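Dig into what follows:

_____
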Amino acid sequence: MEFLVSGPSRLRRAASFRYSLWSVAMASLGELAALVLVAVLWGGTNPFLKQGTEGLEKVKRGTQSLQLLAEIKFLCLNYKYVVPFVLNQCGSLVYYLTLASTDLTLAVPLCNSLALIFTLATGKLLGENIGGARAAVGMLLTTLGVGLCIAGSGGEEP
């Protein structure tokens, strides 16, 4: 885009306008990166959380309150559960902070659908059965839908 300017004040306004367009584009890229980080933290930790809870069913106590306390103790002292849990909660914190500047109609579907993809991919890397070709087609369709959400967001004001 070219600007025809005459005089120093118009030149400054054109440069300022160009700078503001650049900063809007960078903010959008930063927001998208933060949302993808959230999806990685949420989705990537889910299979590890599942692995961290293995053995929880063996914890047995006489009453419901003692059972609850014993299960909480088991989980809190199990690093295989605590580390993914803390990372997952960091994802929630980044999500909360990102929502202040991000369009909800983009943030919610992007994070949730990409988290599903990262859960399936991480589970596959850990040797879990994720469902074969149907899961791959589902991941492809989800990626296509996320791409459409991003393309449709376009930065317009409502």
Observations:
- The CA atoms of residues 44 and 122 lie 6 Å apart.
- The mean pLDDT is 81.
- The chain has one domain: 36-152.
